[in-house]
Amino acid sequence: DLSNLACSSFMFSRCTNLKEIDLSFLNEASVEDLSGMFYRCSSLEKVNLEKANLQNTTNLSFLFEDCTNLKSIDLNIDTSNVEYMDHIFTGCENLESLDLSHLNTSNVKNMSSLFKGLSTITSLDLTNFDVSSCLNMSAMFEECSSLTYLNLGDFKSQNVLDMSRRHIHMK
Q1: By three-state DSSP, how is residue 7 classified?
Q2: Does residue 27 contact residue 53 with C-beta atoms inside 8 Å?
């Protein structure tokens, strides 16, 4: 029973032998902080968060940072209250596909280094991203060396204060 859990930050951090985890059963609206939950889980290949109830989560920072064996992930979760998405996929160098179509980014303030180091991903479709609340997008696409297609749709980034290092090392 995880009904009183409010913070699970870095819960599985550095579990270097963890290969697969199913958290679809999570129905805990109380969880506010998932930052670094899988940080440096270098053997992690598959995560199932589909339909997990994360409606009150505000922090996803560093969620999958340096999960170097992660190949694909479907983030079909409620992100309507998330404010921090920085470094979520930083260093996921073998991530081949990423479906972000279900993400609600309307309250996100920080997207810095969100996709940094995704060296094998070739396309990103961010047409559904609402970045009107975002203040920091620094290094958002840094070191995406294989990225050849990027659809930003109607990116309204008028409130962003920091876009430094936004497109470095893209083809």
Answers
A1: strand
A2: yes
Please spell the DSSP secondary structure of 125-149, one letter per residue.
E-TT---TT--B-TTTTTT-TT--E
CB burial of 37-61 (b: ≥16 within 10 Å; e: otherwise) equals bbbbbeebbebebeebbbeebbbbb
Predicted TM-score (pTM) of the model is 0.89
Question: How many whole angstroms separate alpha carbon 53 and alpha carbon 31?
Answer: 9
DSSP assignments along 12-43, one per residue: TTT-TT--EEE-TT-B-TT--B-TTTTTT-TT
Cross-strand bridge partners of residue 141: none
pLDDT at 140: 93
C-beta of residue 123 within 8 angstroms of C-beta of residue 100: no
Predicted pLDDT of residue 4? 67
Consecutive 10-residue runs of the chain (171 residues): their mean pLDDT?
71 94 75 91 90 86 96 84 96 91 93 95 92 92 92 81 64 50
pLDDT for position 53: 78
Q: Assess contact for 86 and 116: CB atoms under 8 A.
A: no
Cα–Cα distances in angstroms (integers) from residue 82 to residues 29, 70, 103, 147, in the given order = 13, 22, 10, 26
Residue 118 in tokens: 């995704």
